[in-house]
Amino acid sequence: MSGYSGSEPLGRTAALEGTPTSARSQAASASQSHRLRSGGLIDRQQPLQFSFDGKVMSGFAGDTLASALVANGVKLVARSFKYHRPRGIITAGSEEPSALVEMRSGARKEPNTRATTQELYDGLVAQSQNRWPSLRRDFMSINQLAAPIFVAGFYYKTFMWPAKFWEKVYEPLIRRAAGLGKSAELPDPDHYDKAWAHCDVLVIGGGAAGLSAALAAGRAGSRVILVEEDSRLGGRLLSDGGEIDGMHAEEWVRRTTDELTALPNVRVMVRTALFGVYDGGVYAALERVNDHVPVPGPHQVRQRVWRIVAKRSVVTAGAIERPIVFPGNDRPGVMMASAVRTYVHRFAAMPGRKVALFTNNDDGWRTVEAIQQAGGDIAAVIDPRGKVPAEYQALAELSDLRVLSGGVSDVKGGVDGVRGVVVTDNNGRTQQIDADCLAVSGGWNPNVGLSCFHRGRPVWRDDIAAFVPGDSPKGMTTAGAANGEFSLGACLRDGHAAGAAAAAECGASGNAGEASEAGDEVYAISPLWQVKAKGKAFVDFQHDVTASDVTLAQREGFESVEHLKRYTTLGMATDQGKTSNITGLAIMAEATGRTIPQTGTTIYRPPYAPVAIGALAGHHRDENFHAWRLTPSHHWAAARGAVFVDTGLWKRAQWYPQPGEKDWIESVTREVLAVRNGVGFCDVSTLGKVDVRGADAGTFLDRVYINAFSSLAVGKARYGLMLREDGIVMDDGTTSRIAEDHYFLTTTTAKAGPVMAHLEFCRQVLWPELDVQLSSASDQWAQFSIAGPNTRKLLQELVDPSEDMSNEGFPFMGAREVKLRGGVTARLFRISFSGEIAFEISVPARYGAAMAQNLMIAGRDLGVTPYGTEALGVMRIEKGHVAGPELNGTTTADDLGLGKMMSKKKDFIGRVMAGREALTAPDRQVVVGIKPLDQKRRLRSGAHVLPKGAIPGPETDQGYVTSVCYSPMLEQWIGLGLVERGRERFGEIVRIHDPLRNEDYEAEICNPVFYDPEGARQRG
Amino acid sequence: MVDYLWNTQSPLQKALVPGRHGAAGAHVGVTLNEVRDIVLVQVMARRGKAAEAAKAAKKLFGIEAPATPKAVTGKAATLIWSGPDQFTVIAPRADEASQLAAMAQVFAGSASLSDQSDGRCLIRVSGPRGRDAIAKFSSLDLHDLAFPVGAAANTSVDHTAVNLWREANGADGHPVYNMLVFTSFADSLWHTIVDASLEYGVEAASARAA
């Protein structure tokens, strides 16, 4: 016998046993008025201080926040979602709907944390939620007075009109009033990560059945992972005890844990909650690595999401005790019977001094002995079945138990919890019983959530008045209480059999051993879902859904469980209705005159338990949101102060600001003028590069490009355009012939990946008969564009004197290897994007930084200027070259002004479809140049092009501006656009309409080649 | 006349900071090495010439080229399967030009070669917790039974392609994994690998291939 440690003697057997052994634990005990003197899986040598709503209290290592609150006699812990009703702790597990608190503070603040799963640590700080100004005096509880209007469908009925009020008025108002905790609104300072794990057999849940299953599968030799959401293994054995193989249950748990831990093929993961089941045997679990300490240690993560790949899984996730719906069933101090036993037995904390028990099944009766052994009083047992179960008759007589046949029809009390229980007996007579705690058991629901994730429908079993798993996901079996086997002996046998079978199916041939043995206690139940009486009777505690909301939904036609759920929000809170769904649909079944299985369940979907977005993001946040790619000259450019821009995954130098430049336009203009008047260079390594080899490489390229490549001479480059199968342009770039059987193909930066995939598809699937080999060489080469009238002079400095760099020796579109001074060989291509004399030079990537340095040295006397992607873009727009904004997945070759490139002598991908009527229509939008009439006017891309004087609208819209820049050569803003019949309209004045930026002005349509239209400069 | 110097730069120039990182303590959990100065050539059999290419590989390296996802080590080179009728040759860089020339000669007519010595970066992950670190960014099952010494895989890390293979255990008895990553992604993936390893304590270094 044990007793309370508080100053006030409690109950009739308040024997004082066990003495605290240290001064600190003695001090710690002072606040713990409801802590038993001995027993429990807590470490009394490790007292812990914590605070709740600013009040400092103490508990012990091994406590949860909930058990510590119970030990401190705290009953009121929360306010409800809608009515702000005072709420207490209802369960002792992850299904908790009510006791949600805000954990920690500042950037680490975490709302809606279940006090029942939060392990206590020294210095823990928690706050109650959804109340103002305080938990005891919550102003918002006046909502209760307006309760008649907050019924099911309240939002739909109230905020219907005027419709325009929804976004601006109603929604912000509702959002402010709704919700429970408040999030931190600061970046989370902790780290999270994700990891993969693999096994043959995944056992989900570490209670009697799960331990049994893991042991069988482990002994048989299969690779086993056992996940348990709690911080320790044992499940209900930690709360209900019992005898297994002749030893005490806790001893059995210890031995089994030791054996599992010693098996090298078994991995035990505690604090790890399985939350998702996905295709291909992939399971997701959340490990709360460091939620049980104030701050994770250095380089430690707070939480980790596991993706577990398993050949087989055994769900041993137990069962969840269900409440009974009656008026006042949400009063602080009304608690599930199993939770009462957990607090008493596992945590040595008494939820009440006089406990009334309301049960419709034999299992609830276990609570009587648990309370009595702890020295508490059983005020009465209320059992609607009208007689004491055989197993408990002796106990009832011995302790002169007050047993009432009937149901609880009201609960008296206030913010401090239960004071009395009103019982209406089976003859309709009522009486009130003094009690400060009401333990309730409406029976047990096997935890079918995980086994129903793949649209499996659970199957109703009348004998236990509950659903059991039906079609489980592939490779999954269920055992123990999760399978409707409620006795300890059955759990052990069922778990063992399931574990052994799963291991055998994975090919394990070892000896799984024998199942442990325990008794088979009787579980008899008479379903009772609801006691009908006056007053608010809650079904879903977290969303404040009452029994009358369910029947109202039925009267208003929302009979389907999916409609019921959405109309009343039943089961839609963070607990996903673990304690409420089945009860809700049972009430609906009664209201509609159908059976429960006829009424059916809603679809089960992941996550089974709440998962923080931070945990799902893991490492991929902030600068690690996605991978990045660096060019070979990146660090060189960074050292010169380059401003970088993200282009896809690449970080590219956008421009190189110089001291004194007031904005980016000034920097870019300087870079453009330096190129046009002298020489500059730009890292273009981001272009996709593909080595195309083999005897049929030329034929292959003829088929993927619209123009011919088999006719290209070795040592020459050619601009190529490729279409998609549907005739739309896919990509462009230059391709050079390095040798008879070797081409070097380049793509745009953006399409490097897709083009490579397309080419591989062509090679492997369309034309496997061709002798072609492809390899991506994008990262092999550092490639620079060198452009400007002084390019040749610069290259003559850098290239070995033996190389002929004259216009004849290295003509426009020439491509060949050259030796560089200092002993490196480069590939040189005379191609131009800027319209100036230009070369692209490639060296192996290891020389990329050196190349940038050497270009600076070689061009020092010429004023060589590194330029970024902006200047590159300006020069291509001045030359009317198309790029991403024009190659936008809607344009044809002809739209781009490149229709003449389409060969008539050969077939190529996209040829036939490009001839479709709509793709050759004369009124298509084609690429043109656009110049605002007002030369000071800034042109912006995205602006619409309309006929002069037209009223803006879809009928008058003729196209839009695609690319713009400030042109240093024309000294005004210019742009490219896609405009209907554009090429016939050079010189026409059009209206530019930009409703997004409220701009409207006139511009002239012109030839897209603004600068050097004859192209003399690049050939010179 | 100016002397042009062609200093080489690793893609991990900035990212790799040699020395101890992360959790302190007597033991290093994860050892990370950039293996520098490699010759890396992709060998792709010409159409219908896979058998000839395999014969050529045997002649040059004294070992059969792998026909399934495996890595085999022959004379002065490791051959790693990289696709049907394709494999990658990795060798310590000595006289690069003659190494490439020798390959060009022996594979002439039977395979196309693509020099990727600068296209990939080789990162070696070892140490008692190396496997745990890799589990954070790779979906591969690296258990001894599933991924023994010599196993290889084309896989993805941070949505980018990686070749991963296991070589003989290190002197400490722990497994050793090699990751071949695209050069432009090396800086990013190195950060991912280090982040995954910090909680175990990291020793980072770079070394010439041997």
Structure description:
The complex is a heterodimer of chains A (1020) and B (210). Chain A is α+β, with helices and mostly antiparallel strands and 1020 residues long. Chain A has 26 helices and 50 strands. In chain A, strand 32 and strand 33 form a beta hairpin. Residues 1-21 of chain A have low confidence and may be disordered. With 210 residues, chain B is α+β, with helices and mostly antiparallel strands. The model of chain B has no long low-confidence stretch (mean pLDDT 96).
Tell me the Rg of chain B in angstroms.
18 Å
User: Biggest β-sheet of chain A, characterized?
Assistant: 7 strands, mixed
Strand line-up of the largest beta sheet of chain B: 1-12-2-8-11-10-9
What is the number of beta strands of chain B? 12
Distance between the termini of chain A: 104 Å
Shape of chain A: elongated
Overall average pLDDT of chain B = 96
Number of strands of chain A: 50
Could you give the topology of this structure?
The complex is a heterodimer of chains A (1020) and B (210).
Chain A: H1 23-31, E1 43-52, E2 55-61, H2 65-71, E3 78-79, E4 86-87, E5 100-103, E6 110-114, E7 124-127, H3 154-158, H4 165-177, E8 192-204, H5 208-219, E9 224-227, H6 237-240, E10 243-244, E11 247-248, H7 249-262, E12 266-269, E13 272-278, E14 282-287, E15 303-315, E16 319-321, E17 334-336, H8 337-346, E18 354-359, H9 366-373, E19 377-382, H10 393-398, E20 403-404, E21 406-414, E22 417-425, E23 430-434, E24 437-441, E25 444-446, E26 459-461, E27 466-468, E28 476-478, H11 488-505, E29 538-540, E30 545-546, H12 547-555, H13 561-568, H14 581-592, H15 596-599, H16 613-617, E31 629-630, H17 634-639, E32 643-647, E33 650-655, H18 664-677, E34 680-683, E35 688-693, H19 697-704, E36 717-723, E37 729-739, E38 742-747, H20 752-766, E39 773-776, E40 781-787, H21 791-798, E41 815-819, E42 825-829, E43 838-844, H22 848-858, E44 865-866, H23 869-878, H24 911-914, H25 917-920, E45 925-932, E46 944-947, E47 959-967, E48 972-980, E49 989-994, E50 999-1006, H26 1016-1019
Parallel strand pairs in A: 1-7, 8-9, 8-15, 9-12, 15-28, 17-24, 18-19, 18-24, 19-20, 31-33, 34-44
Antiparallel strand pairs in A: 1-2, 3-4, 5-6, 5-7, 10-11, 13-14, 14-15, 16-25, 21-22, 22-23, 26-27, 29-30, 32-33, 34-40, 35-38, 35-39, 36-37, 37-38, 40-43, 41-42, 42-43, 45-48, 45-50, 46-49, 47-48, 49-50
Helix pairs in contact in A: 5-7, 5-11, 8-9, 12-13, 12-14, 18-23
Chain B: E1 19-21, E2 30-36, E3 38-45, H1 50-61, E4 71-74, E5 77-83, E6 86-92, H2 96-107, E7 111-115, E8 120-126, H3 130-134, E9 152-157, E10 160-167, E11 176-182, H4 186-197, E12 202-208
Parallel strand pairs in B: 2-12
Antiparallel strand pairs in B: 1-12, 2-8, 3-6, 3-7, 4-5, 5-6, 8-11, 9-10, 10-11
Helix pairs in contact in B: 1-2
